[in-house]
# Entry
Amino acid sequence: MTSYFISPSFTHEKLDAPSYADLLDVFEDRMRHWLLEPAKQLLNKMPHGDGTVPAVALSIGYFEGIEIYCSGEDSNGRSKEFFRRGFKRVFTPDPAGAHVFDEVVNALYVQARCGFVHDGLFRNRVFFSDVRAEPLTVTWPRRDGQFVKDGHLESVIINPALFCASIEKHFSKYMFDLRAETDPTLKTNFQAAVSLKWGLSEADRIIGMTERDFHGEA
# Structure
């Protein structure tokens, strides 16, 4: 039988009766080489900032996805909730700024995540700049020189390199913790997500045709 790749580094044999370590290897290989590394390549190799928007567009999907594995639950019907929870794992909110945090997450979900997924573009309150030394900067209304505490976010400025680096830092720590096996809940939730999403118990149905049909030999 012909081998086929289930991630950049591993063929399907890797998931024949896989161990926990096998699952981690495939998961990390997929995430690093299909999401994190491509985002970095876009930032580093496309001139004049042309890689900025696609790099962030690729990375913005991390939050909902990683929450599925951290919680061991499906996000079906709860996309915004999972996006928020995953975002909170990467960017820890200041308890004193809960209102601002809510506005930022909502803006990123609606303006960035949904904007790109549904419109093919980010919407009008998302901007990009490498001037600031923070992954995310927000602009907020002022009155007489003071922040309006019950105001609403005006814009989110994303530093693409730092934004992507924050995501990669979180993922590296998550993988370290999974491999350490010191948190039983973390391991159990990861395995539950794999069961939900990978279809390992289903019959092999690559491409939906025989090997001879695929090669035009039938």
User: Anything to note?
Assistant: The radius of gyration is 20 Å. The chain has eight helices and five strands. The beta strands are 126-128, 136-139, 142-143, 146-147, 155-158.
